[in-house]
Amino acid sequence: MVKLTMIARVTDGLPLAEGLDDGRDLTDAEMYKQQVKALFKNLSKGHNEASRMSVETGPYVFQYPCPGRVCYLTMCDRSYPKKLAFQYLEDLKNEFERVNGAQIETAARPYAFIKFDTFIQKTKKLYQDTRTQRNISKLNDELYEVHQIMTRNVQEVLGVGEKLDQVSQMSSRLTSESRIYADKARDLNRQIIIVSNSEVWKLLPVGFNSEVGSGCHRVRSRVPPLLGESKAVLVVHTQRPNTGQNIIYVSRIMAEEPVNVNGFRELARQTLPKMYYDFFTGGAEDQYTLKENEEAFHRITIQPKILVDMSSIDLSTMVLGYSISMPVMIAPTSRHKLANPSGEIATARAASTCNTIMVLSISSTCTLEEVAACCNAVRFFQLCVYKRRDITAKLVQRAENNGYKAIVLTGDSPRHGRREADIKNKIIIQELKNVEGLLSTKIVTDKGSNLDALANQTRDPSFTWEDIGWLKSITKLPILIKGVLTHEDALKALEVGAAGIIVSNHGGRQLDYCPPTISVLEEVVHAVGGKVPVFLDGGVRRGTDIFKAMALGAQAVLVGRPVLYGLAAKGENGVRRVLEMLKEELELTMALSGCSNVKEITRSHVRTKHDWQLLSLL
Ligand SMILES: Cc1cc2nc3c(=O)[nH]c(=O)nc-3n(C[C@H](O)[C@H](O)[C@H](O)COP(=O)(O)O)c2cc1C
């Protein structure tokens, strides 16, 4: 009896078709399918021992002939005649090649030829009963003789693969360690040269073009280690120029064009090496606060006012006296070059195009001078105080001299939060540009994250509210305090003369289980009593989130990760699109809620969980 039938492409093990009804009455069907996939994987690595294989597994046996570009495999009872099994596969092969032969190389998704199941079922029926006249005559027919069947046990066959896998894992570890060097090379000229099967392959990333012409083929299994462990499909076009070199253009079939900023996250995931995607996306420890930052917005509802004149809507607002086109700014985030070789320059240009403010992180990968020179966006400079106060003072001075309009002092990071993904990945980071020549930021540790080591080595954990007097003494720039989550700290910020407060938990990257920012915004706003503007960051992903934050008293919001995702996916244009999407969504939210300008967004436009509880008591 034929129990399973599976068809896969040999170059990469991609399943093309299978008998859909197969395995329904089989205990452990899933386990056997996994074994088949492992066999396909072996074959894709060129491990095949004979022209016909019989691989025994429990009461069954996998039969498959030496594959060409496609492997046809069936699993039958051990008692089922091998001769019939191979004849069955031969019938499948003839029909499959006839119908689908031209598209086998270019198939991009698993089970692209699932319709072939109809033929599998029909043919399987013919072979099910070995005693039919047709099958008896096939068994007796010398024409269908099968020779050289090698019988092995599944453990033996997969065991060989396992050892080879170990070797391949070791080599992919080496590959991932060498990725940092590959990235540097990519920074230089976006080209990587690799040697594969003694041939030199030149990889030229060509962005996100999903167009594939004829002659393209996929070498998925070979290329991903170089470009990260993205699950994106790689399409490779080969050419043989006069030099005899193979040039392969690597492209990715990307997810659909994003329709909201969350879509950019998926694009970023496909684009970035895992280590860097994890760095951008991750939070501290259990990532409770990280998740809650977004979730807490979902628990707030909007109370719209209807039949209001919405023929024109003005989203502009003022921040420290600067007019911006919408109440959304770019939060300080470090190391933009890990997302895109243009780094903070691309981000700043997008901010400038969208007429909003960018807060440049002290841990940027372009210098504050380079960013200042690249565009005329209004810029603030984010500061963490270094142990070396003289260097901190120099940086503040440089920011002032280069036209930065405010200092954003991050108060929530006396030590580095425990970001376990970075620890697991043993993240490798570049030296920091702003302190080049002033402070060594080259850290290489074997024990976990290099970021922890760097922060602990350089930052001053003893800096307190009292020291803000010192900071004020070295700059005329207004100082915003970032990281406030309680009314007590809000009052302290007022006492020390802060020009503004940013309610922030560092995007859930510092203290886990501290509250989501939107849940404490109102407490801070009440404590401040309108004396200075209050801003918020953390989990803002929608125009409705911005609206909710403003209704609860924020002057504007800042966004961190969405900007990085946009930058990773599409560079400057990606950041611009992220900002535009948020703006468009906010405009729509205002239109549907009856607010024609940001001042008209009031507390009465939202209900929090607390409001609902109070209402239920009435
Ligand atoms: C990758 C990354 C790097 C960050 N680097 C900094 C930094 O250098 N200084 C800082 O004050 N905050 C930093 N933050 C925190 C952001 O300023 C901001 O508080 C947070 O990203 C807001 O949350 P969101 O990402 O959900 O929008 C960083 C956040 C991320 C995701």
UniProtKB/TrEMBL annotation:
Belongs to the FMN-dependent alpha-hydroxy acid dehydrogenase family. Belongs to the synaptobrevin family. The lineage of its organism: Eukaryota, Viridiplantae, Streptophyta, Embryophyta, Tracheophyta. The keyword Coiled coil applies. InterPro entries: Aldolase_TIM (IPR013785), Alpha-hydoxy_acid_DH_FMN (IPR012133), FMN-dep_DH (IPR000262), FMN_HAD (IPR037396), FMN_hydac_DH_AS (IPR008259), Longin-like_dom_sf (IPR011012), Longin_dom (IPR010908), V_SNARE_CC (IPR042855). It catalyses: 2-hydroxyhexanoate + O2 = 2-oxohexanoate + H2O2; a (2S)-2-hydroxycarboxylate + O2 = a 2-oxocarboxylate + H2O2; 2-hydroxyoctanoate + O2 = 2-oxooctanoate + H2O2. Its EC number is 1.1.3.15. It is an enzyme of class 1 (oxidoreductase). It comes from Gossypium barbadense (Sea Island cotton). It comes from the Eukaryota. GO terms for cellular component: endomembrane system; peroxisome. Its main location: membrane. It is found in: Endomembrane system; Peroxisome. Keywords: Coiled coil, Flavoprotein, FMN, Membrane, Oxidoreductase, Peroxisome. Residues 6-120 form the Longin domain. GO terms for molecular function: (S)-2-hydroxy-acid oxidase activity; FMN binding. This is (S)-2-hydroxy-acid oxidase.
